[in-house]
Design a protein that fits this description.
single chain, 71 residues, mainly alpha, 0% strand
């Protein structure tokens, strides 16, 4: 689960960077409809990224706790 969360985070971060690049393009920036769609997708990716980061943190704490209990 932890490695899957890490993979998901990496993928979402890449999507986020791609969307940031798309938002900066003049042809997209000048097209209000297209820019709004890109911004909406960016918000969705941001929400997913925050959820995956929270999941990763939770799993990391659980693993650390288990490791400490075995010592």
């Amino acid at each position: 689960k932890l490695s899957q969360a890490e993979n998901d985070i990496t993928s979402l971060e890449k999507s986020q960077k791609d969307l940031e690049h798309q938002m900066a393009l003049p042809e997209n920036y000048e097209n209000k409809v297209k820019l709004t769609a890109i911004q909406q997708k960016y918000k969705e990716v941001q929400t997913q990224l925050e959820q995956k980061q929270a999941l990763w943190e939770s799993l990391a704490v659980q693993i650390d706790s288990l490791e400490n209990s075995l010592k």
